Fold:
Amino acid sequence: MSLVAAAQTPRLHLGALFEAIVDWMTANLGFFLDAIGLVVDQAVSYLAAFFAAPVIVVLAVIFGGFALAWRGWKVGLAAFVGSLALGYAAAAAHVAPQHVLALTFGIIGLALRGWAFGSFAFLAFLLIDAMGLWDPAMQTLALVLVASACAVALAVPLGIAAARYDVVSRVLRPVMDFMQTMPAFVYLIPAIFLWGVGTAPGAVATLIFAMAPGVRLTELGIRQVDPEVVEAGEAFGASPAKVLFRIQLPLALPTLMAGINQVIMLALSMVVIAGLVGAGGLGDSVYSAISRVQIGPGFEAGLAVVILAIYLDRLTAALTSRSAVVRAQAAAAR
Amino acid sequence: MPAAIRAEKLNKVFGDTRAVIDVSFEVQTGEVFVVMGLSGSGKSTLLRMLNGLLTPTSGTVYVDGVQLTGLKPRQLREIRKQKISMVFQHFALLPHRTVLENAAYGLEIRQVPKAERRARAYEALEMVGLSGWEDHLPTQLSGGMRQRVGLARALATGTNILLMDEAFSALDPLIRREMQDQLLELQARLAKTIVFITHDLNEAMRLGDRIAMMRDGRIVQIGTAEEILRNPANEYVAQFVQDVDRSRVLTAAAVMEEPVAVLDANAGVQQALRVMRERQVASAFVVSGDRRLVGVVRDEAVAEAVRNGADSLHRLMNPRDVVTVRPDTLVTNLLTPSAQSPVPLAVVTDDGRLRGVIPRVSLLAALGNGYHIEEVDAEEVTAEEVPS
Structure:
């Protein structure tokens, strides 16, 4: 027996262990996983369908709701009635739904950032349509929004828990490191096992990959809040919930929004990869362009992703700068 | 009536450090109780045990007779809402809310209706002199103004107890004095029970009805400013008070002496001369039967009157010679009168009775480190005063 052979490290089959875990989950959590898959699937396909052919009343409700929250009920009502009238007028005039939506995205951009961004958004979304990528782009947008919403819904409570309890923070940190740095493709394999090919594995893999910055920045934001201000809340008799919702979260909001921005950007980068497992959308377009070595369609699909990314990024940034804390800081600088 | 706050054998241990050790005291209703100590002396920890932000490791706190220790979090919050407000070193205002909303914060927590909340916050802001700033954001205000918002927030709740944690320490000296004056003014009107934490002894002496000196977690002395200045409990306190501006703490009553040469208004000049010679003084105060101050006579005038055969003291008294001060006049305000008066200052009560006298030499001795005049070696003083 040679020395080299004797010194060899025994082969550990961690992969087999992981496989066993996935197998166990498939066998025992089938109902639960199916439910998740179904919900995610339905949400994405509803949203994608809405983006492909918007329901006028829903659009009007959304616009009305935002205007109501922003400027009070009069403006809200006006926005509701106005968008309802405009929507039906557009439908009567047979304006393509893509154009209505492009205009909608433009108006949202205009309301949050101003003319330049509003017109950019309108033209950029028209460009997506002109490249013949409207449906896949909207499917990607739907997938990103659903995955990001789920990721944020999970990340913010986890971040709050981590900020409050050091133990949670210590446990979560390596888990987050793991989730964020594990090559994204790897998530797709068990996801296919658990949900089969389709939207659900893509969305779940996306949300796992994208969640980490949401947790981290929520925790950071809350921990950065001046402890004296938190103490002031407690000293005046505020309950922990009031301290959290009236003091910690509002003051952590800029950091928290930066986290949400990161979540959305990571989700967007992931959905293209998710195209590999049949999540559809622009990922599909990119993937088929790669497999057929078509430079043109690949570039177009990539450009559409870039447009979505810029739009979502600037929008979340605008939301952040509208938060009361940021405005207070701006007022101080004046 | 129970004391507003009573602390019994409080201890607080963080890990290996004992932050507060065996601290007991009582704060009476309407009193300004200052806890004075350097950083790390445990004073902030102590303050936070008084409203239950920190739980004592052992010992008990009573607020208005209610024992805080062992209360459930909900009950503790109720006590804070109803009885105790707090003012913070770095103001601890919510940056995204207006001055008015900040001032109303305590009431918001108590779920006071919005209209009443606004009205009371307006009122509190007016008390601290911030009318007209309601719609500004805290970031647009200077430090002093921000702390006024902090004070208004505490006052708006209407609680009887105010905890002030180094409330003026972050302000520059001029603003700090202004804030101290304002607090004293407000306190004269509102008569709150205030526990004030500071590391600034001059501040402690200005504000405190009583002062607790803290060192390394223990209270080393509790007393009025004068008591601490005059009888420091140990070397540490003595060294500490060494640099205090005594002239702003000590009052006329603290530095005055028994008048050694007092004459009855009916006394004759012969008697006056004899008394002054016996006591070796250059002047004597003249009082009526009920010790009301009538005037002062000086030795040259008396001697001349004896030579001229005059008898009554009344003609010898020059009204311009007598400078009277009240017992609570601060020493700092005695300096000019003392310099101008040819005779010792007369300390006179409101009803005109002579309480004591302040010769220039005792004033100077009081300002020096060794307050205890009786301990000053008389020979030494003479040696210094007589030019060789």
